[in-house]
Amino acid sequence: MKHKVQNIEHTSTTTGFTAPHYAAAQAGQHILDTGGTAIEAMVAAAASIAVVYPHMNGLGGDGFWIISEPGKAPVGIDASGCAANLATSEFYQDLSAIPSRGGKAALTMAGAVSGWQKALEISQQWQPNKPLNELLSTAIGQAEWGLEVTQSLTDASFKTFDELHDSPPFDQFLIKGKALKKGKIVKLPKLAKTLSQLAEKGLDDFYRGGIGKNLAADLTAAGSPLREKDFADYQAKIVKPLSIDISAGKLYNLGAPTQGVASLLILALFDKVKHLASGEHEYPHLLVECTKQAFLIRNQFVTDESRLERPLEDMLDDSIVDALAAKISADKALDWPNKAKLGDTVWMGACDSSGRMVSYIQSLYWEFGSGVVSDSTGIVWNNRGTSFSLDADSNQYLQPGLKPFHTLNPAFAELNDGRRISYGTMGGEGQPQTQGAIFSRHVFQNMPMDEAIESPRWLLGRTWGDQSHNLKIEADIDNQILESLQAKGHDIAVVPPNNEMMGHAGMIVRKPDGQVSAATDPRSDGKAFPY
């Protein structure tokens, strides 16, 4: 069942939560309603959505956080994993590229759970944390009692069935050996047991305890280069977000290895060129052209932090932004294609009663990640390592201990009028584009949040397995916009409306008076609170 966007504001409302699955949103909002912090609510929702949206994210994936406390600069958490110590070019010497599925695709550590732990350390500084068994209880119950299969999960199951169904541990995502059908109930008892063990022994057990030992053994057996030492050595880390000032306020996102710099550049460029439009119907053209310039910068520079040619902050300097803006034509589309990045992800946002806000993103990368399921824990492992290259001349060349490029990037904004906005989406290559669309509509065009998110969107490039690099546009977009794009030379493909290809966007806004409103995407199975 698709749940309609919720965006009803109440002056008494001081908390909010949004997620692309209604059960995860409810888990997060329950923690807020019982006095928990935005971070605690996000951990509860992150565990829940790992159960109910298992094709997109999970404990075997990565996460990135932006955490904002009123009156203080936002902080980030990089909870992405690095390549195993054994993940060398020699390990893949008989291959021309890293496989997308199987043990050799499962080559990077999963950072999500360490990110939960690191975030809870910050939460503990605000107020005493709730017990882990309270934060994880909803997810444990969902895994034990069973989850209702959504259309999104059905689509992923049928899409990956031929590729993944032969692996015995993957049986937990099948019903009697067949792909999942919408409305059926799937139970994940092994994952329930794992979550219960984390609640009892602490999140560190994932890396330096019994769960870590079991995961290392299962991954080794599956042909992965990950070993127990890789688990023991891993820690998520606190990072300083990238930021840029635009006319409306200050925007925040994360640096390497994410594409956050591209998300910031799109909006900074649009801010400088939006006056070139003869009307708002020409805004999509300008946003697409800003996307192209931002992606060219992203592809040239973003890599593991240790490999950066220059700090990504340099790319946000006024002189660079002005030079890129000068390349944008109001009348003609820049020739494309450009290599696209895939990705299946969840973004969620939270605001607690003290005005502390979280923008969080969690992912396995492709649907069901590497397809490797740990038989002892029920955890699906990511395939983020496929973003590495085996070409020694590439800035994504595989080396142990380095991080691959990430499409993941959580967004946050502090506006000049006092509003604070947590926003984001899933969608790989589409993430920066959707962020640009929903932010510009809400902030520059003054659309209500629900309208800004629900309105027809576009996607430049290849995603969700599509091989074309054209500009995909939902069929119900305003005809004036479509005609304007065609006249300017865009290579357009019309796709059905309300299309999951366009991502699962969400947004939470807190006004200076403490009033909170939230919205989620009708393209997802999500819900937003308040409602």
Topology:
Layout: E1 16-19, H1 22-33, H2 38-52, E2 62-68, E3 75-79, H3 112-126, H4 132-145, E4 147-148, H5 151-164, E5 185-186, H6 189-201, H7 205-208, H8 210-221, H9 228-233, E6 237-239, E7 242-246, E8 249-253, H10 260-273, H11 283-301, H12 318-326, E9 344-351, E10 357-365, E11 411-415, E12 420-424, H13 430-444, H14 449-454, E13 458-460, E14 471-474, H15 479-487, E15 492-495, E16 506-510, E17 516-520, E18 527-529
Parallel strand pairs: 14-15
Antiparallel strand pairs: 1-9, 1-18, 2-3, 2-10, 3-6, 4-5, 7-8, 8-11, 9-10, 11-12, 12-16, 13-14, 16-17
Helix pairs in contact: 1-2, 2-3, 2-4, 4-6, 10-11, 10-12, 10-13, 11-13
Textual characterization of the structure:
There is one protein chain. The chain is α+β, with helices and mostly antiparallel strands. The chain has 2 domains: 22-237 and 345-384, no CATH class; 239-343 and 407-529, Gamma-glutamyltranspeptidase, large (L) subunit, C-terminal domain (Serum Albumin, Chain A, Domain 1, Orthogonal Bundle), CATH 1.10.246. The protein is 33% helix and 16% strand. The strands form 4 sheets. It has a 7-stranded antiparallel beta sheet, with helices on one face. It has a 6-stranded antiparallel beta sheet with strand order 7-8-11-12-16-17. A 3-stranded mixed beta sheet has the order 13-14-15. Strand 16 (506-510) and strand 17 (516-520) form a beta hairpin. Helix 2 runs parallel beside helix 4 (132-145) and helix 4 (132-145) packs antiparallel against helix 6. The longest helix is centred in the middle third of the chain and has 19 residues, at 283-301.
